[in-house]
Amino acid sequence: MVLTAPQRAGRRRRTLAVLAVLTLAAVAAFLTVDVTGSWDYALQQRGRRLAAMAVVAVAVAVSTVLFQTVTNNRVLTPEIMGFDRLFVLVQTVAVFLLGASTVTTTDPRLRFAVEVVVLVGFGALLHRSLFGRTERDVHVLVLLGVVLGSTFTSLTLLVSRLIDPNEFLTLQDLLFASFTSVDRQMLALSAVLVVLLTAGVWRLLPHLDVVALGRDTAVGLGVEHRRVVDRALLAVAVLVAVATALVGPITFLGLLVANLARQLLGTHRHAWVLPGAALLALLALAGGQLVLEQVFGLNSALSIVVNFLGGIVFIALLIREPRQ
Amino acid sequence: MIEIESVSKAYGGVRVLDDVTLTIPTGGITSLIGANGAGKSTLLSVAARLLPADSGRVRVDGLDVATTPSAVLARRLSVLRQENAMSVRLTVRELVAFGRFPHSGGRLTREDHRLVDEAMAWFELGPLADRHLDQLSGGQRQRAYVAMVMCQGTDHVLLDEPLNNLDVRHAVQMMRMLRGMADELGRTVVLVVHDVNVASCYSDRIVAMREGRLVAEGPTAELMTPELLREVFDVDVAVHELAGRRIGVPWS
User: Fold this and answer.
1) Best of A217, A265, A323 to mutate (most B CBs within 10 Å, chain B)
2) For chain A, is the Cβ count within 10 Å smaller at the N or the C terminus?
3) Of the options 3.40.50.300, 3.40.50.20, 1.10.3470.10, 2.40.240.20, the CATH number for the domain spanning A39-320
4) What CATH number was assigned to the domain covering residues B1-76+155-166+184-252?
5) B131 CB near a chain A CB, below 8 Å?
6) Where are the domains of chain A?
7) A162 CB-near residues (< 8 Å, 6+ apart)
8) Helix (H) or strand (E) segment spanning residue B78
9) Binary contact (B101, A216; C-beta < 8 A)
10) ipTM score of the complex?
């Protein structure tokens, strides 16, 4: 069946509205289900976690969509390029060198700053080595990501063998994505960063729509391709660093929500895909946390729940997608 | 007018363009011919600022393509490469509408919509307007890309192998449309063409290249000679006059 342009636009609006309603419902449920004792206290605690989820949802959604646009592909994410495994490595090395007690008692803002700087630095390095040359080959990118990722993982394994077993337990707590122990000041700082970056990116959106057509077409249509790509990648590096440093690695979420948003909305236009992906990410996080608390009694990790449920939805959608 | 001044370009030590100097006058159709690897596509890409030249410079209406802002050039010159694989899923209408981007950014005006409809009508894409590109045949897709370029409404139109994937009917139709763009709309059309006879029948001027160098350029009739075609393609080509046109026959 072929829909006309106005029909498509109508369906997009309806889809986005449904997503917004579903997300609101998940948020409301997350805030109110099973409150025992003081409502004030419960709402305050859960509100803070919810705020962390919202910040992470926007950061992950925007960074993944932009990364896929500038690299012209739909399977790579900043996480696949080794960002979160670098995070794991940094934590492990810090615990090894300084000891678990030093790491956990350091001012969280300082830790946060160091993590952001390391991840942005890595992003800049990756950018220079990949986008400095004229030919950009997605296969080289994937290969590099896989190699870097496994290098980081191997180094992490090596260091963690050398760590005292008790300290290793502390380390594991640091490494699982968690919304329960987010520092208030870090949260505020992250929120400001994410809002500023998203606002900065917003003006680029029409240009990014053209960049998604591929470099030659974009240049032919008068887009300053290099400049747009540079800015988008800088935003990606900071957003990934913020999200990972705030709650830890959530590998699969970005890939999931970026592709789901495109598929559900039936467009690649960033003005639609970005809000859609951000809503989906918040829905996945709030819904996932709810499932985690109510069904598993906190005996699991959020990333496991999100990856499991999200993966099923994703595969189902791929299978159902009509191929003409 | 496109002025190419001693342009050279090398890929990893191999010279693909060797000191090419050429002026393409305003108006009419100019065809670049030559064997595979002669540097036609590279020359077109350099002229359209898709590739930087190693040395030399290209000016379009007096504007140096290497230094003029891309957005300014996009209102004077449009280009279509041979390969147009995209990672995004677009309808024909969405693709053609991108041709208006240099003029109105992301927001299309009523006039833009009219021009999009007009371009789709020219290339008989009306019934396919709301189909996705991946649902079309190669030839239909090719017409959609050329419609986008036409929709850009520039004085200079550079096309790399626009007849790719087109059957005879649509190839003839495409060349007639390009002729119309040159004759009626006064556009300057530059093509890379594989088939010498297409160049002979539809273009005003021919530019012949071999191994990165310019062999000859001039009015079509002067260049369609067995001697020149032999020099360009390294094959004996008999040239016959048929219904007022010069046709090269290499299969002899």
Assistant:
1) A217
2) N
3) 1.10.3470.10
4) 3.40.50.300
5) yes
6) 39-320
7) A96
8) strand B77-80
9) no
10) 0.91
